[in-house]
Structures are given as structure tokens and as C-alpha cells.
Amino acid sequence: MSTSGQVQSRFQTSIDIVRRQAYHIAPVAGQKRPPTEPREPTEQVPNIPPLGPVVKQATFPRQNVNPDTILESAPLQSTRDLLTAPLHRFTASNINPGAGVGAEPPPDDHQKAVAATAPPSSQNPLLSLSNPKYGLPPALTANFAALGVRNIYPWQASCLLARGLLSGERHLVYTAPTGGGKSLVADVLLLKRIIENPGRKALLVLPYVALVQEKLKWMRRIVQDVDRNIPDDGDDKFPRRQWNKLHKNIRVTGFFGGSRTTATWADTDIAVCTIEKANSLINSAIEECSIGDLGVVVLDELHMLDDEHRGYLLELMVTKLLLLQKDIQIVGMSATLSNTEMLAQWMNAKFYISTYRPIPIDEYLVYENGIYPAATSRQLFQTASKLTAAASLHDTIPPHRIIEPSTFKQLSNSATNAMVALAVETAAAGFGSLVFCGSRNACQIHAATIGEAMPPAEAEELNKRLDLIAELRSLACGLDPALETTIIKGTGFHNAGMTTEERELIAQAYDQGVIKVLVATCSLAAGVNLPARRVIINGARMGRELVGPAMLRQMCGRAGRKGKDDAGETYLICVKADMQAVCDLLDADMPAIESCLAPEKRGLKRALLEAVATGLVSGCEAIKEYVRCTLLYRTLDKKLAYTIMRSALQELVDEELLIFGDDEFYEATPLGQAVVASAFSPEDGLFVHEELKRALQAFVMDGDMHIFYMFTPLQAAMDTPIDWQIFRDQLDRLDESGLRALQFVGVQPGFVNTMVQSGASLKETNPTQIKQARIYRRAYTAFQLRDLSNEIPLSTIAQRYQIPRGTVQTLAQQCHGFAAGIVKFCQRMNWGMMAAVLDHMRDRLEAGARADLLEMAQVTFVKSWTARLLMENGFRNLRALAEAEPKDLVPVLMMANPRKAQKSQLYPTEAERYTAKVMAKAETIIAHAIKIWEREMQIEIEE
């Protein structure tokens, strides 16, 4: 045999290795059935090509599946049509071995080498969380074990046992690869601090709502049945406030935009929150002198420090905590930090850097149907450089694998052909793959394209997909037809244009193996924890921009995850036009984290205003000390930092947010106090102040349009493109009161007509034009808020304004926090009547309902649609709901979700389970209604 032949037979991907083992199609993406489990003789498996050096997947013969035996009553005829239609219109291309020589060992040897670096806990007792050195209670270690965390990695043990960390005496900044277990270190430090110090609280800060919700569920499961060390009343070692009752159990609360929680700082022990909510909580605690209750702050995704929109808030939080010099431990972590040591110096923290990944990742570059492996980014860059200069590609640099060109028109593009071939190959082996692409529209197109080439599913698998389609159809927003056509074929898409409920169901289905291929935008890499056996990056651009090194690392980091896979692969598909850019990207170092308080980013003004308004500083020397605690001071020339500080202070004085007294102390004006209390930036606060002042002169009270305009979030409005034809149509439908309100705020129908006729866009080149653009964008977005509060379905609103349903839902969530800020602003300015009027409308916005439903919409599980059904079926107020019997509510609740009720009737056991579930829901509704009713009666008696 020739040398090249030996190389060909030696080179294998992890998928090749899997094909040499006896596997079932896995019920969960990335998991195989035990090797000892026998295969049922009747089980049909999609045709897997003969084992050998050539991976064949040219055909997947359709199985003889009767759709009537899959689900006796398919939800809609369209779903039946999908089942009886051919499952694919074309087939994925074959992937054959090439002649390239790889320098790295085969994947199986490489995995063994990496795995050998992690000794079992029997050899190293410090790798067990129950080791006395960690001081964790048995109930907590049992919860960790129940969730699959029985042992820790050597780097985690080394980090935790560093001097001063477990005792809470030192701060920590650390970095570890995605999937390397970095969150566990912070969890242990946070929980130990809270359990051993029962009077202290914890903040766990994450950048995205999806991450907050995921972590909230995890944390509640971890602390279940775990008690804190509450001392005896006579124990002088733990002085306690008599008026502050200590709870033995650990209360975990989520604070994020769109959350309906009524919990406060006093009601929680662990607050899992977004960056904005965390900053507001810290401001309130400083102002109320309760900041001493805070014991630990965990900052996940610390690289967000240099995010141009939100990074300055993280820096503000850390700066305030460093200045206080309280006994508060700060823990910061990220997978993409390059200047960890400098950040640790700023925070006076210990720093730790880990490069360990329990699951190795094999990286590949795909170019013109050739697959080129590289063990590191440097080797990948060298490969890309050679490819750019190559005159004859395959002759100059022989690929290790070759994707055959497709004869199908839909796959004539080599990048699309490669994407489909790689995704289908993974699915055929029973594993999940993530495909990242550059836009929301591309997600849908690529998911549909891959679906046309997917292997056929077994009856059980099809049943699960039909269940998923039924779940999506039962949502208030209905079923997206594009999702329906892809799901039935085993693919799906995930992007910000989808609603939260849609994204959750799709992510869950992918995690359970119902969907084999998930096509997503890059936001999924940062915002959702979904690992994959194979990650396919279809092009190095997200939108028009090239992805940065940090985002590329995050996307690649989704490949392979401990407990799900024993290997991971990433494929970067590159087109010729981007080759040089890819070369530069792959060779680029991770960018250093920089301060967002720099003058061009205007964050220092807010930092100074918040510090003065909360009483943290006031004198000139104290303000200088505050500035010395910033990352800005650490990274800039010291004289320049003080110059920027003085300039920012003078601007705040000129804008009447601060006053500088004769005693040379700064003090916040009522306007400055209102801006900080409302969590607005100085610029947004001044704009809101001007709008509210004008409204006080002539508030349009005979309609709702003026209030909807005032409650429209500034950022959401600025991100909304205006369709001028739709704008004019909505203006034409307004009554006299609504039109008068919009004209009062500055909207001119004549200008809207001009924009429709000219097809021009708003100019925003000077302050006057920027102000005008804000007014028109807010007015346009206010129409959507009006429709939401009038119980118009979300899908109808999305169709009316030609925007994604997820955008409408995000607006609804953002307006809750903004409306609360507006009300608080009015209260701080002593505009009591204005605050009362706005507060009533805020309740309507949160309920998404008209005024007659507000009382019942307070109750858990009762949203606008359910409240309307209850009212129409005789439960006309809160008292009637409180006095109801659970069995009387069950039929109404089933009417609120007819698809689930219809589906449950098909199967007796399912019907029993569903009825029991609805009965439990009815009991919860009545119990909460009774609680609210009793509270209201008590208030009436006291008055």
C-alpha cells in the first residue's frame, strides 16, 4: 500500500469513528445509547453508507410510514400534506477522503491525550466537592451531583483553593474556554458566601435575559432544600438586626426586563439579574444605606465591559463597589478575555487563566469544496494564507476531505453545498449540529435548504416533531409556517425575530434531539447555552460586518460539551472574496478590554452623576478618589483622566443635573435625582424631562395616544425603521384626540405625506434632526404599544407593521421598565398627578389588556386572553375568581389553549395528565386571587 493510501485510511473525523460503532439514532442530540443495549429487530435505521474510506450519503430512501399511524388526528391538513409529500427534493453531496497529510494525531488519539490530563477524583480527593476544604453542606453537594456535577476539574480545584477566595477575602478575575466549567467556580464561591453569612445577599449579573432565565432555573434547583447557617439568638459571633428576619432557606429572584416579579431587594438572597437591573439595585442599596447587606457580586461575561451600549454600566458597578471598600467579594469571568492581568490589577483581584477544555475541538477550514484541518487558529491561518496564494488549489494544498460538487441547482454554490453536506452527515450519525449564518432571513432559508436533504425520520421521531408543531401552534402568536415546514424535516432556526416562547421551544427540541440541525444568528452563541457535536459557520460575516475574534471564539466554543459529547468539530466555510479578511481574523489576537467611560463614549457623565446623586461622593477629593477606582484611570494618562472628569462635571452643572456649592461640594438637583432614580442616561433623561414638561402644559387627557407616546422606550424607538406608508395609514385612522396628541408632541401629517411621496429617510446629522427623528420614531412605535394594550394579537401587530413577532414582544418587555422609569421620574420631580395618570396606564401595558381586565390580570397565570375568557364566562371580577371552585375554571382554561386540549383527547392517558395539570393551574389561580382579594380588603378596612 502506498504512503498516501495509508494516510487516507488513517485520517478520520469524529463522525467517521462513530460510524464504526453500533449506534441507534440518539433520542438526545449528542448522546448515544449504551453499547450493551440490544437493538430491537423491528427498529428501522436510516441507511448509513458502508463503512470504509469513503463516506457515502447520496440517498436516504423514504420509509413506508403511514401518517395516520403517526398521529391519528394531525393538527392541520397542512401538516398531513407535509408528511405525505416527499421528505426531500435533493440529496446532500458525498464527502470523500482527500490526499492531504495531517500533522495532528487522529481525533481518537487526540481525545485520549486530553482526557488523560484529568485524573479521577479517586486519585485526587480535592476533585470532589464534598471535600471538607470546600466547606459545602451535604445538601448542596447532593444537588450538584443530582444535576451531573460530581467532580470538578483540576484547574477548578486549583482556582478555588487559592488563598483568600473561599473565605471571601479576595476578589477573583478568571478566564476559561467555553465549556471548560468556568461558571461552577463562581457558583461555589457565591453559594458558600451566602450559606455561611446568612445576613448577606448575592448579585449574579448576566448580559442577556435568556441567560438570566436559564441561570435562574439552575440556581433554584441547586439551592433546593439547602439551609443557611442561621445562628442562635444568643450567639454574639453573628450580630443580627432584630428588625431584619433571617430566612433559613435561600430565596432566588430574577430581575430582568419584562419580568412580572414584585420582589424587592429585601425579598431576595440571590438576585439573578441583567446588567441594567443590577446597577439599579446597587444604586438603591447605596441610597438606602443597605449596601452592607451585599456579600458577593458575580459578573459573568466580563468582556462586556467594552460593549459600546452597556459596558459602562458594568464599569460603574465595579467602580462603586471598589470605592466603598466594603466586605463584598467581586468575581468576574469570561471565555474571551485577553488582558486578564490588567483587569485583575484594576479590581485588586487574583487572576487565573485556564486553557483546559474537557472536550477537544477539531477545527477545519472549508474552501471551494475542500476541507482543511488545523489544530490551532495559527495553523488555520497559515492554511488560509496558502489557499489565498494558491494558483491551483487542490494541487498545491491537497485537502483531507473533498465535498463532491452537487448536480442540484439549489446546491450549485460551493458554500451552500458544503453546509448542507456537513449538516446532513452529522444528522445521519445521530448527532446535533449548529449552523451559524449572517442574518435572520438567511437562517430561515438555510434551515429549509438543509431540511430538503435530511434523512427520513422514524415514526417515534415524527411524533415528537408533530408534538412540537402542536406546541408552537398553541402559542398566543400562532405557528410560523416557515418553522412548520422545517421542523417536520428535523431542522429549525433561532433568531431574535422569534418570540421568547418560540425560541425556548425550539432550543429545547434541539437539546432533546427532536431537531437535529439548528440554524442561528451569532446572538445564539452569546445568549443561549446549546452545545453541538459539530458547529458550522457559514461565512465569516454576520450582516455586513466581519465577526470579531471574540464572537468567532464563542461560536466555535459551542462545539462539544461535557456530558453531551466526547468530541467537537468546527467548520468555517469561507468564500474567495473573504479569504484575506479571514486570514486577518484568524491571526488576530483577542482585543484588549477598554474603558467605556472615555470621552467619545460619554459614560463618565453618568458615572459621576450616579455617584453624587446616591450620596456616594460629593467633595472634590472624594470624586477624584472615585475616578481613581475606574478602569479609565487605570488605562489613561492620569492628568488626562482628571481633565476629562472636570469637563464632565462642568457639563452636568451646565445641564442643571448637578450644582456646585460655595462649600465646593457637588449636589444633585431634583432633575439629577430623577434621572438616576429612573435609570436613564443623562442624555435620555434630559430628553424625557423636556417631553414631560411640555406635556404638563397641555396633556391630552381625552384619549390614550399621548400616554402611549410617553411610554415608548427611547432605544427601542431608535432601533425601529419607519415604514412611512404604514405611518400615514395609522395617522389617517386616528380619532381627533389621538391626532391632536401626536401633533402636540411634534408630528406633522404633512411631513409624513412628504416622506411617503419622496421615499426619503430621516436625516440625523445635527442635534435638531436627531431630536426630530426621535419624535417620529417614538410616535411610530407608539402605535404598536397602543395595539398591544388593546389586546390585539402579537402576530397581527407584527403583520400590520411588517416587523418580526419577536421585535413586537421585545418592545412589550422593554416598555415595562421604561414606563416604570417615567413614573418614578415624575414622582421624584413631585409631579404627583402626572405620575398617577401614567401609573394607571403602566398597569395596562404590563397586562397587555384594556382597563376592565386589570384587576384579574394581577393573578398568576392570568394573561389578557385568559382574563377576557374568564370575564366572558361569568368570572367578572377578582372576587368572583377568588370564590370559584377549581373544577369550574378548568373548562375555561382549556378554552384558552384549545390545541393542547384537542390533542389530549386523542390519548386517554394524555387526557388525564392534561386535566390534572389544568386543575393544578386552576387551584393556583384561585389561591393567588384569594391572596390579592384579602390584601385589598385589608387595605380598605385600614383606610
UniProtKB/TrEMBL annotation:
Q: Region entry Disordered: which residue ranges?
A: 25-51, 94-124
Entries under SUPFAM superfamilies matching the protein = P-loop containing nucleoside triphosphate hydrolases, Sec63 N-terminal domain-like, Winged helix' DNA-binding domain
Q: Report the catalytic activity.
A: ATP + H2O = ADP + phosphate + H(+)
* Molecular-function annotations in GO: 3'-5' DNA helicase activity; ATP binding; hydrolase activity; nucleic acid binding
Q: Which InterPro entries match?
A: DEAD/DEAH_box_helicase_dom, DUF7898, Hel308_SKI2-like, Helicase_ATP-bd, Helicase_C-like, HTH_61, P-loop_NTPase, POLQ-like_helical
Q: Where is the Helicase C-terminal domain?
A: 414-605
Ranges for domain Helicase ATP-binding: 163-355
Decide whether keyword Nucleotide-binding is in the record.
yes
Q: Name one Pfam family in it.
A: Helicase_C
Name this protein carries in UniProt: DNA-directed DNA polymerase theta
Question: What CDD domains does the entry give?
Answer: DEXHc_POLQ-like, SF2_C_Ski2
What is the top-level taxon of the source organism?
Answer: Eukaryota
Keyword annotations: ATP-binding, Helicase, Hydrolase, Nucleotide-binding
